[in-house]
Write a structure and sequence with these properties.
Elements lengths: L8 E5 L17 H6 L5 E5 L1 H4 L9 E6 L2 E6 L8 H14 L5 E4 L11 E4 L5 E5 L2 H9 L5 E3 L6 H23 L3 H10 L1 H7 L1 H10 L8 H17 L4 H13 L7 H15 L6 H13 L3 H4 L18
Helix pairs in contact: 3-4, 5-9, 7-8, 7-10, 8-9, 10-11, 11-12
The structure holds iron/sulfur cluster (SF4).
């Protein structure tokens, strides 16, 4: 079992942790975030509306305007305009949160919502085309940061994707914090081969090319480009077909080590996963079982087999 990077720090809308900071004096405690994910990460709770001096309870605010020109105004008193205050706070916060590895926003909020927030036209008609003013500026300031919102995290695939990005980003941040060298970059890329290939084979190859000439070049510039492409690639959803491909490739390393019956069992398990009869955890566990018995240094190094704490059970849902 590989050692995990130090605990990721995660920015989060305070109300999701149970803090009673919402406009109506309530909280929106999210059980999975607090009780399960919270076991493996440290949270940095932030309530932007409280931070700009709106107390609780407070009169509600909402997004008003067009997608290109959005203001955050009071619902009852539209002369209250907190757009600038929220944007300034987000800019400042982005500057101070360089070491976080992810952010979980509260859905639908005019400040924290990541997407599909109600945006009111002057005539009062609402469309779900808005982004919370704080979330928008923060995400622009930290474009590679894994971000998700509470509602979307109920989807097992989006949840797994987010957690994978958080832990991969943490490993990447740790590598950069230790000081860049060519060997460490190449090693990072090699150890993420199968994970990256499930998300995008083309991105894996482009990233490899980026690292192919590291002599005499500015490693920070290369690392910036690598980070942007890596985090974009990991956002792509992974369908069963791509996992099956990776599992079969990895199975190939056992070719001369396991006998016919074991091989058949493993193949059947991968096929059952392909047919959607079992979740990913089933063939994955079997593979890991065989690699424990017949260790292979190369496969042992692959983060794909062990990308985040197993007890989160995320591969049971995909
Ligand atoms: S959604 Fe954001 S602004 Fe609203 S209460 Fe939660 S943390 Fe505060």
């Amino acid at each position: 079992m590989m050692a995990y990077a130090e605990r990721p720090q995660i920015g989060i809308s305070s109300c999701l942790l149970g803090q009673k900071v919402r406009y109506d004096g309530t909280a929106k405690r999210n059980r999975w975030l607090v009780d399960q994910f919270g076991e493996f990460v440290d949270y940095r709770p932030i309530c932007p509306e409280m931070a700009i001096g709106l107390g609780t309870p407070r009169p509600p605010i909402r997004l008003v305007g067009t997608p290109d020109n959005v203001r955050v105004l009071g619902v009852e008193d539209p002369s209250v305009d907190v757009t600038g205050a929220l944007e300034d706070f987000a800019l400042n916060t982005a500057g101070q949160l360089g070491d976080i590895s992810g952010y979980v926003f509260m859905s639908k909020s005019p400040s924290c919502g990541m997407e599909r927030v109600k945006l009111y036209a002057e005539n009062g008609h609402a469309t779900k085309k808005g982004v919370g003013a704080y979330a928008r500026v923060l995400m622009e300031g930290l474009p590679n940061l894994p971000c998700e919102e509470e509602g979307r995290l109920n989807d097992p695939m989006l949840r797994e994707n987010f957690v994978n990005r958080v832990f991969t980003y943490r490993r990447w941040q740790t590598l950069r914090a230790r000081g860049l060298d060519a060997k460490a970059l190449i090693d990072f890329h090699a150890r993420h081969k199968y994970m990256l290939m499930t998300h995008s084979q083309a991105a894996y190859q482009r990233l490899g090319r980026l690292l192919s000439h590291l002599k005499g070049v500015d490693l920070n510039r290369i690392a910036d480009a690598y980070e942007a492409e890596l985090m974009t690639a990991l956002k792509r959803r992974v369908g069963r077909k791509r996992h099956v491909n990776a599992l079969q490739h990895i199975q190939g390393y056992l070719k001369d080590r396991i006998d016919g019956d074991d091989k058949k069992e493993l193949t059947e398990s991968i096929e059952a996963y392909r047919r959607e009869e079992v979740p990913l955890v089933v063939p994955m566990k079997l593979l890991r079982h065989y690699f424990r018995r017949y260790p292979d240094h190369y496969i042992d190094q692959q983060w794909y087999l062990d990308p985040y704490p197993e007890s989160l059970g995320l591969r049971n849902g995909i």
